[in-house]
Amino acid sequence: MADVTTETATPQTAGHAPRWAGALSGILAASLGLALGTLLAKLLTGVPTPINTVGNRAIDFAPPFLKDFAIEQFGTADKAVLIGGVVATLAIVALVVGAIGVTKPKVAQVAMIVLGVVAFAAALFDRTASANIVITVLPTLLTGVVAFAAITFLLRRMGTLKGEPGSTGGFERRAFLIGAFGIAAVAAIGGGLTRVFGGAAARESRAAITLPAAAQTADAIPAGAQIDLKGISPYITPNKDFYRIDTALSVPDVPTDGYVLRIHGMVDRELNLTYQDLLDMPLEEHRVTLTCVSNEVGGPYVGNATWLGIRTSTLLEMAGVQSGADAVLSTSADGWDTGTPLEALTDDRSSLVAVGMNGEPLPLIHGFPVRMVVPGLYGYVSATKWLVDIEVSRFQDFTAYWTSRDYTAEAPIKFSSRIDVPASFEALPIDNARVGGVAWAQTVGIAKVEVKIDDGGWNEAELGASDTDETWRQWSWTWDEATEGRHNITVRATTKDGETQTSDRAPIRPNGTTGWHSVQFRVE
Ligand SMILES: Nc1nc2c(c(=O)[nH]1)N[C@H]1C(S)=C(S)[C@@H](COP(=O)(O)O)O[C@H]1N2
Ligand SMILES: [Mo]
Fold this sequence. Notes:
The chain has helices spanning about 5-10, 20-45, 50-60, 65-75, 80-100, 105-125, 135, 140-155, 175-195, 200-205, 275-280, 310-320, 340-345; strands spanning about 260-265, 270-275, 285-290, 300-310, 325-330, 335-340, 350-355, 360, 370-375, 385-395, 415-420, 425-430, 435-440, 445-455, 460, 460-465, 475-480, 485-495, 515-524. It is an alpha+beta fold. A hairpin with a 2-residue loop joins strand 7 (about 350-355) and strand 8 (about 360).
């Protein structure tokens, strides 16, 4: 912070502007620049906002351990925390720069230019931009120019920077405040308008879509797949409750107009498919349980949905995969990419290039208009959202977003189980101590779930009806001899291959957690 006491300590000319006026000017100039730059970004398509573009660079430069920490500490709020950090840093810098400007106006002017250049440089290298580079850098350019013009105007109003126009010759509180108020008003209006725009193109085209009926529908969900127990995860996760994990600071705005899925690389025929081309192909419906590698034992990053899409094997057959290929590198509109074993996209599992989720076009945050869904593999090696590019390749020929950050290239989902009821420290009634949850072993299937109370023996739980081996399975168990007081419950699953969950704890990195989920609860 600027040292306010220097204001009286330094010899000053009559009417020298106070430090608070400088600090306020710094904040206002930065705010006005950001408001107008952000507004411009939102009016363009495929262009990150100045704050997001700086945030994107921060994500790209952050070491993996910091990301693990952020996901662990803040969960899906990690993006909000990052943006908050960028904004707070900028605010402090703007305050200090403005306060310095009271005695050193040229320094403040140069500092505003430097801030603009930093944002400009971030935009120049922003992999999330889908617009061309000249358009991508425009918002940060505008931010820098406006922030410079605004600080210059306010420094003149303060009488700090001599020269016409707007120079008052000395500090007059009233004249300064009128100028400051004007800047604040324009910044507020600009900031308000940014909320009106953005994501508009995708939202509009999504609203206009009616998905065709599936050529092959999923079998009905067997009766009894959903166990009647309050608090258990619903068998199908509603879209609004489905977990969201991605590196996108703002949801990529990908309208169906102009959408092209390119399939190329080690293929006989390159394909360029429009959204309509995809809808015109034989669509299949499959229920698949997605899981994130960042899911802690007992964690929330797992969900089950009915997906509508074209089999990846159909598309790859059309393109004609050449021999020697063992991987598919898929890329999103915002430049995120991942490698998936070719085998997982061509064997008999229900791997899809999906357009629908639970009877609707994909929600914007879940990859509209097109994403991948691959049963049995963690999302980071398979589930590319906002999918625009599929390149048939070889693992040895590329690294992808997470594999260049210490995660393994191949990552089948580690089977697991979770207690939904009781929730942590919840009380169960002694005459009906019923517990339950979900277990998943995608592509293999769950054969058995067992629970134990405290240090007791394992008890076999009842399983919900089996749907497919690509989905999770519910379980429940009633503790008939429940005793009052505090207890601990632990769960473990066994797959149809006869493997039982290990109690050994593995961390998220490099390829997912293991261990048993336990919950503390009470019986009364
Ligand atoms: N474009 C893009 N797609 C992505 C990601 C991403 O960061 N960017 N994250 C992946 C990860 S790690 C997971 S677990 C799934 C999550 O999909 P969901 O948000 O629809 O649940 O998306 C995958 N697809
Ligand atoms: Mo993930």
